Amino acid sequence: MKKLFIIITLLILSIFVLPVSTKAYDFVALDIINEYNIKVDPKSDGSLDIRYHINWTVLDDELEGPLTWVKIGVANKHVKNIKSLSDDVIDSIRYYDDDGSYIRIDFKETYYKNQTVDFSFSINQSRIFTLNDDKTIVEYKFIPGWFPDSKVTKITIDWKDNANLKFVTGEVIDGYYHTEDSLDFDGRVAVEFAYDRSVFPDLNPKKDYISYEDESFIVGLMVVIVIVVIVIAIIVIVKIAENESNDGYDCNSGFSGSYYWYYQYYMPMHRRMGYNKHGQSIAPSRPSVIEAKSMGGHSTGGSSCACACACACAGGGRAGCSRKDFYKNPDLEKIKEALDK
């Protein structure tokens, strides 16, 4: 009991007390993003081919270790054609679900303080557009994944020019609408574009924008519905079982239990019909209440027979996160040892 009390206490501390204690730490910027370039080419089906180029410098390699992998926020999980454009730097690249939608990149090398990694990759992002009320205009509001704990010295977004654009962001440079900015911690930038629907002959209006949060809500709702259905089914089954148990008598007998099964299946038919084996009428062979109870049945009282947003990406970040992981997944044994000391 004492051990159980200690474990419960530690769990409560890990959930409520320890996260609050993070305020005692001074914030240290682990990295800085020198360049964050995004080039976008809309496709005939309304999806976007997006190319990313990132220049990333490590500022601290002690608090959470050196840089070995990063995650870059994308609009939702509907990404395909994920390709490394820096095979000399990138060891592996894949979609990464981590309380949001990301592209995870593992590097071939380990990067320490003041070292810089320069890498590029591309994806095709679908479920990214929205339609106006009369379904004639295809609209985009694009917010690239941002970095809560890192500043971005320079971010550029280049969006392919098209004569049918209804409203635009930025100026045209080399055939692309160009937007440039810098971002503070957790900063983000958005660009907006709209086209006549005729620009997208292969567009499926049912495949409009859906965010990670939207999908999570839908999945959560489905899980709740399934659980409710299962609970209702269990309640119904239990009620039916109770009814059969409480009212499991036969129209011809008025009682149930072990004798009921004898009467129903083992008693000779002529005795159940009220005749002896010679065809002579006899009194019904129904036991008394006491006899029925002694045989495992119960009296029934002689009853008669009854029938029964548009594209707000999650943030991006680096690998490690040991400090955050400590508070999310505390080592209870080490905490207990420290408390004992």
Provide an overview of this structure.
This protein has 341 residues and is an alpha+beta fold. The protein is built from seven helices and 17 strands. It is flat, with a radius of gyration of 35 Å.
List keywords for this structure.
four-stranded antiparallel β-sheet, seven-stranded mixed β-sheet, flat, 26% helix, 17 strands, alpha+beta, 341 residues
In short:
26% of the residues lie in helices and 32% in strands. It has 341 residues and is an alpha+beta fold. The strands form four sheets. It has a seven-stranded mixed sheet with strand order 4-7-2-1-10-13-12, with no helix packed on it. A four-stranded antiparallel sheet has the order 5-6-3-17, with no helix packed on it.
